[in-house]
Every structure is written in C-alpha cells, then in structure tokens.
C-alpha cells in the first residue's frame, strides 16, 4: 500500500514541476521581443553616440537616420500604458520618468 502512495505522490510532484516549468517558459516567451528590441536600441544608441565625437563623421556618412519613426497599433499602446501603470509602483523614480516620457511620445504618435 505504501508503494502505491509513493508512486501517486511522485506522479503528482512531477506534474507540479512540469506546470512550474511551463509557467516559466510562458513568461519568458511573452517578454523576449521587448527585451530584444530594447537591447537592439541600446546598441544602436551607443553606436550613434560614439560617432558624435568623430569630427565630420556624420556629414560624410549617412549611416544613421536623423529621425526614427515607430509604429504601434492602438492595442499595443493600450497594453504598453497598462504595463507602465503596473510597473510604476515597482520601479525607481528615474525609470518611471523615462517610461512616462515614452508614454507621452506614444500618445503624440497616436494622435
């Protein structure tokens, strides 16, 4: 009887482990695009900032755009604003100010 109890307990614990791993993968899947895009933008920003200190570089080479336009659907903007509102209590003041500036920019683009 004890063997059956241990067997059922092991099966239940394995199911719990599989559910936890599934949840972790789902969370990672939902944010990987944002993390990738943010990393790409930071890399581009650092590359542009390095070229600012080379005299005449920007006049001779048109490798970087003078303006960048982002597109977002109304649903994307709404989800972003909701995420910002939920993150507001968890972030520092500096990060919050930067994020709110992004929200203002998105609102200007929307109208």
Describe the structure.
With 111 residues, the chain is an all-alpha fold. It has four helices and no strands. The N and C termini lie far apart (70 Å).
Nutshell version of this structure?
The chain has 111 residues and is mainly alpha-helical.
Largest sheet: none
β content, as a range? under 5%
User: How large, in whole angstroms, is the Cα Rg?
Assistant: 23 Å
User: In DSSP terms, counting alpha (H) and pi (I) runs of 4 or more, how many helices?
Assistant: 4
The backbone outline, from C-alpha atoms, is elongated
Proportion of helical residues: over 70%
End-to-end Cα distance, whole Å, is 70 Å
Average pLDDT value? 76
Number of strands: 0
Low-confidence stretches: none
Summary tags:
single chain, mainly alpha, 0% strand
Break the fold down into its secondary structure elements and pairings:
Elements lengths: L1 H51 L4 H4 L13 H14 L5 H18 L1
């Amino acid at each position: 009887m004890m063997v059956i109890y241990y067997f059922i307990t092991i099966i239940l614990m394995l199911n719990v482990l599989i559910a936890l791993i599934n949840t972790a993968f789902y969370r990672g899947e939902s944010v990987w695009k944002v993390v990738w895009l943010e990393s790409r933008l930071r890399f581009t920003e650092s590359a542009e900032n390095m070229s600012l200190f080379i005299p005449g570089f920007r006049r001779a080479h048109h490798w970087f755009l003078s303006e960048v336009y982002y597109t977002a659907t109304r649903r994307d903007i709404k989800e972003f604003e909701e995420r910002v509102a939920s993150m507001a209590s968890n972030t520092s003041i500096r990060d919050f100010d930067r994020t709110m500036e992004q929200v203002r920019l998105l609102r200007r683009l929307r109208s």
